[in-house]
Design brief:
Helix content of chain B: 55-70%
Helix content of chain A: 25-40%
Strand content of chain A: 15-25%
Oligomer: heterodimer
Shape of chain A: globular
Region (Disordered) (chain A): 272-297
Organism (chain A): Kribbella capetownensis
Number of strands of chain A: 12
Protein name (chain A): Sugar ABC transporter ATP-binding protein
Keywords (chain A): ATP-binding, Nucleotide-binding
Largest sheet of chain A: 6 strands, mixed
Largest sheet of chain B: 2 strands, antiparallel
Order of helices and strands of chain A: EEEHEEHEHEEHHEHEHEEHHH
Strand content of chain B: under 5%
CATH superfamily of the domain at 20-110 and 170-256 in chain A: P-loop containing nucleotide triphosphate hydrolases
Number of strands of chain B: 2
CATH architecture of the domain at 20-110 and 170-256 in chain A: 3-Layer(aba) Sandwich
CATH topology of the domain at 20-110 and 170-256 in chain A: Rossmann fold
GO molecular function (chain A): ATP binding; ATP hydrolysis activity
């Protein structure tokens, strides 16, 4: 699972040195610290999963790497150089591609036009599109990555959510991404669709790309991840390698860790009968001595 | 980046070639084409003069008068915006050329060139203001519509003392300019106005540009999802400002035809309400009001439908009072047909 392949000779960094490394990154918006002392490294051929509850700082973290926001403390090193991105273009030019949850695809345009949008292959002074060539390349790239879209002329809006994610990812990879940031790619998808996207993430990793997989589903993360970072209230709560953690531990950590344990004790003490005796009338007596606040006056 | 994981796999065997019918039906202009055929047959039966080949030239001329402006208005609509000042901008351009040439006693062509510069500037201003403020194009161009409408009348009265520009028909350069913008010639007994030729040429170029060039791809993208287009590096602002300038260019061209066809006189109140005709033609032709979808050829067919109905009503001997009502019904019908056809095409 964790083996890294050798890549094209044009790869700037070796497989073991991180392409993107964050050291003690912090970001404050006015008097609010959205991120504090976060360190993270992304290596080629590795999937780094960033997990966290809503508001944990996941979005802020990817926005810093994607060039939408600048950080306020710490250092970000990209390809061995310390960088501050001032626009998404700069991040893109450094080989970092971000596939956002709301997708950067125009729904009424055909698959192949979307695939090449902004990077069209053209000839002549009028920049005429080489449609046949673009369709062929789009088809090859998509097939190579294991997604089949029968009709490339079909508008992207008619594809399923999973297929759309895959087109967006395939596009990022084809246009030279070395680091791929995926913002909750499985959040809005069904089980099968998620499976397709997860398989595709693994393919991207096998192609030698460093993947940052943002999710709040520990099951999805554990299926593909090499490295896990759990954020909580803007800080790193857990930073571990796959071999050092089980799915149960990850789930527990993700769901709130010790807080969840406390909660589960509390709930169990509250009313154990309620779980097993669903069909029967509510056992009133056992709730009398609990510490629940919702019992009313 | 070349990917090194697997050898290229042959195309998916579930892919079968789509039938010609299915591909035809998925074109945005198909609804308007069917509508145009129905209207043509209808008036061929109902209005005897409609069958006269000599009237074909007149029908095409009427279509071209709307159609030239429908070209940029369609492109703009596909790019997600629309321009309410398009109708009066035509008049502004014609008046500018006429008034400048007359008042400064210049060669007519100087006025023509200055009018072009002004028209492009108005377009650029519309686009720039829109991008700068982020207001909807409805509001911004409604503002320019009133400004231009007022200026047309006020400046004309101030300089010429009347509500129309002074005639420039005896000035230097008039005959050559008229030859370019408003001449006519005969083909087998049918009188063809030169603007019809220009119109067909403009439609051909714009249709090719929209479907076969990078700019065309970007126009679809900025109308379909401007944020997505920006994220992949499409210069959204430049594309949209360029589209408004295209409206300016064609407003200039139509304004010149207006000036030179009427012996160098333009009425300053002209053009109000024309903007809706351009928009109707574009919508009938399959352009989506919300952007991202449509066709230039469809817009041209929309303009043809407009002129066939306008003249067909006259040729049939009906009271032309009914024309507007008919036009509104056409618009509704066309939108519904477009909707149905689009859904059917998607189901295939």
């Amino acid at each position: 699972m964790t083996t890294t392949r050798s890549f094209d000779s044009d790869a700037v960094t070796g497989p073991t040195s991180p392409i993107v490394e964050l050291r003690d990154i912090g970001k404050s918006y006015g008097n609010i610290d959205a991120l504090r002392g976060v360190s993270l490294s992304v290596r080629q051929g590795e999937i780094t999963c960033v997990l966290g509850d809503n508001g944990a700082g996941k979005s802020t973290l990817i926005k810093i790497i994607a060039g939408l926001h600048d950080y306020t403390s710490g250092t970000m090193v990209v390809n061995g150089e310390e960088r501050h991105f001032s626009s998404p273009r700069e991040s893109l030019n450094s080989g970092i591609a971000t596939v956002y949850q709301d997708l950067a695809l125009a729904p009424l345009m055909s698959v192949w036009r979307n695939f090449f949008l902004g990077n069209e292959i053209t000839r002549g002074p009028f920049r005429q599109l080489e449609a046949a060539r673009m369709k062929r390349i789009a088809s090859e790239e998509l097939t190579k990555m294991g997604i089949s879209i029968p009709n490339l002329e079909q508008p992207v809006g008619k594809l399923s959510g999973g297929q759309r994610q895959c087109v967006a990812i395939a596009r990022a990879i084809h246009f030279g991404a070395k680091v791929l940031i995926l913002d909750e790619p499985t959040a809005a998808l069904g089980v099968n669709q998620s499976g397709v996207v997860l398989k595709y993430i693994v393919r991207a990793r096998d192609a030698g790309i460093g993947v940052i997989f943002i999710t709040h589903n520990p099951h999805h993360a554990y299926l593909v991840g090499n490295h896990f970072v759990v954020l909580k209230l803007g800080r790193v709560a857990l930073d571990t390698h796959r071999s050092d953690i089980t799915l149960e531990q990850l789930t527990t950590e993700m769901a709130g860790g010790s807080e969840l344990e406390a909660l589960s004790h509390e709930l169990r003490d509250a009313n154990p009968e309620a779980v097993v005796d669903q069909g029967i009338t509510r056992p009133v007596d056992t709730t009398a001595d609990n510490e629940g606040e919702r019992e009313g006056p | 980046m070349a990917s090194t994981i697997t050898s290229p796999v042959s195309a998916d065997d579930r892919v079968s070639a789509r039938s010609l019918a299915a591909r035809l039906l998925s074109r945005p202009e198909i609804g308007s084409l069917v509508g145009a055929a129905v209207i043509l047959v209808f008036f061929l039966i109902a209005a005897p003069p409609f069958r006269d080949i000599n009237n074909t030239g007149t029908i095409l001329y009427q279509a071209a008068l709307i159609g030239v402006m429908t070209v940029p208005v369609s492109l703009l609509m596909i790019g997600g915006e629309f321009d309410l000042s398009a109708g009066v901008a035509v008049t502004t351009s014609g008046l500018t050329a006429g008034l400048i040439a007359y008042q400064l006693s210049l060669n007519v062509w100087v006025g023509v060139v200055i009018a072009l510069a002004l028209s492009l500037t108005i377009g650029a201003f519309n686009g720039w203001l829109l991008m700068r403020t982020g207001l909807p194009s409805f509001l911004v161009t409604l503002g320019t519509f009133f400004i231009l409408q007022g200026l047309n009348i006020a400046v004309t009265r101030l300089t010429s003392g009347a509500v129309a520009s002074n005639s420039i028909s005896d000035m230097d350069g008039f005959s050559t300019a008229k030859a370019v913008f408003a001449s006519e010639f005969k083909v087998g007994g049918v009188t063809i106005k030169i603007i019809v030729v220009w119109w067909i040429a403009f439609v051909a170029i714009a249709a090719w540009m929209l479907l076969r060039t990078q700019i065309g791809n970007w126009i679809f993208a900025v109308g379909g999802d401007a944020a997505a287009a920006r994220a992949v590096g499409v210069p959204v602002k430049k594309v949209k400002i360029g589209l408004f300038m295209a409206v300016g260019f064609f407003a200039w061209f139509t304004g010149m035809q207006l000036l030179f066809v009427q012996n160098g006189v333009v009425q300053s109140g002209e053009g109000v309400g024309k903007e809706f005709l351009y928009i109707i033609a574009a919508v009938v032709g399959g352009c989506l009001l919300t952007g991202g979808y449509g066709s230039v050829i469809g817009g041209a067919i929309g303009a043809l439908i407009f002129s066939m109905v306008q003249l067909g009503v006259v040729y049939a001997g009906w009271n032309p009072d009914w024309f507007r009502a008919f036009l509104g019904a056409m618009l509704l019908l066309a939108t519904i047909v477009n909707l149905v056809v689009k859904k059917q095409a998607e189901a295939r």
